[in-house]
Amino acid sequence: MKKKKRPSIQPKHIFTFLAALCIVLIIATSVSNGGNILRGGFNTLLMPMQKGFNLVGGGIFNRADNLIHLHNVEKENEQLKDELAELKEQNTRYQLELTELAEYRSLLMLAEQYPDYETVGAHIIGKNSDNWYKTIMVDKGSRDGIAVDMNVIADGGLVGIVTSVTPATATISTIINDNRNVGAMALNSKDACIVTGDLSLYEKGLLSLSRIAKDDDINNDDKIVTSNTSTMYMPGILIGYASELTVDPNNLTKSGYLIPVVDFTHLDSVLIITSVKEGSSGGTEETAPEDAEGETAAETTTEAAAEEAGQ
Amino acid sequence: MKRVLSYAGIILLAFLLQNNVFAVCPIIDATPNILLILTFSIGFIKGTKEGMTVGFFCGLLMDFAFGSIIGYYALIYLVVGYITGMIGQMFYIEFLNMPLLLCVLSDFIYNMYIYTFGFLIRGRTALGAYMTQVILPEVVYTALLTLLVYPLVLKLDERLSASEKRSAKRFV
């Protein structure tokens, strides 16, 4: 079986060479963004295949999933109908208030704070198969006007942020990714907080919510939206609802969990907001320290809690 | 040449299945690592050289598609290919459970690497939770698929070896 064709290089030398190459690549690409050129060509080549596989395989699995979940759907339907009626009623009330607000705004000559964002729809064609990182790949890229740092939403909630683009694809780091921090605030009180992805909470479908000053008016079930002061996220995008808030042992801050509005396991298409927050760092690194610092700098009100950075 | 092409083919197939089908499917809670199965299977059957080359390219594929830095996945797949290659040389006789044992070993090495360099260095110390939520499910799913994929790789290798032998004879 093992025949020697020619006096060849020893495996351990090849191993050392390749390992060294990997390490050099790791260092080089973590310092600069040179990897994007390689990535671009490669992903453009593979995109059609990825899309095809996703379409066929995903179609089959989704059908199976639908069958499994069918018995829940009826019950959910009833519940949703009730909810819908309630919301309709609420909606009309809000609409009235909104017209009133518009009047007041025009009186004060105030610009709209939360404009309707322009979005581009995109299909998810792949997810990182590594069970550690929650990154997804979509079928729209720089050709469609997508750029790094654009925010991604679905189901009316924040999904994540674009971390790298190639002509035909874009990679999105979701907010449930373990190293993602989002500068957020409570919709009602405008008090600041930080939403952090935490893999150990992923199973329960939660994110961690922290660095709320103890006396801030954030309560369970409050709507948490992206903050005006966040460096990377457009303001006013719903993230989820606060839950199980407790005062931290340091007696200065509160923390708890956040129930996201987006169902990350059943996500199959997203909307990408085609404007980038001004003053965005432009950095594409997914690593925690930079992000954490970037967001903390914005969060002046919770500096007291900065000592728990990296927790 | 035939071998290189078939390896490229199965790596690509495994990559697409893994990232574009299994990972997107909502029923499976952990995605089996088919690229890893390929790496240790080929490493075990054909030795260190082919194992680590296949591993290296499997890792590069992952890096290009999802990694924020390039080389992160390539390094660990390379190491797995090399180690299983060495194991393959040590245990010449193939007994029944070897692929499963290798699967558990490689998946464990792989996940510990990601945990150490992706999580532990950021101060995430809850290894117990990660063990039950991330590592164990992945090992189970990967082990299940090993039962399917390993025999296929073995068969492919036999066929390739046979055709190589034939063409070698023709030249003599």
Task: Describe this entry's structure for a reader.
The complex is a heterodimer of chains A (311) and B (172). With 311 residues, chain A is an alpha+beta fold. Chain A folds into two domains: 34-112, no CATH class; 117-306, Rod shape-determining protein MreC, domain 1 (Thrombin, subunit H, Beta Barrel). Chain A is built from four helices and twelve strands. In chain A, the strands form two sheets. Chain A has a six-stranded antiparallel beta barrel with strand order 1-2-5-4-3-12. The longest helix of chain A is centred in the N-terminal third of the chain and has 74 residues, at 35-108. Chain A is globular and about 85 Å long. The N and C termini of chain A lie far apart (54 Å). Residues 282-311 of chain A have low confidence and may be disordered. Chain B has helices spanning 2-22, 34-46, 48-65, 72-90, 98-119, 127-171. Chain B has a single domain, classed as Arp2/3 complex 21 kDa subunit ARPC3 (Orthogonal Bundle), CATH 1.10.1760. The longest helix of chain B has 45 residues, at 127-171. In chain B, helix 2 packs parallel to helix 4 (72-90) and helix 3 packs antiparallel against helix 4 (72-90). Chain B is mainly α. Classes of the chains: A alpha+beta (311), B mainly alpha (172). At the A-B interface, helix 1, helix 2, strand 1 and helix 3 of A face helix 1, helix 3, helix 4, helix 5 and helix 6 of B.
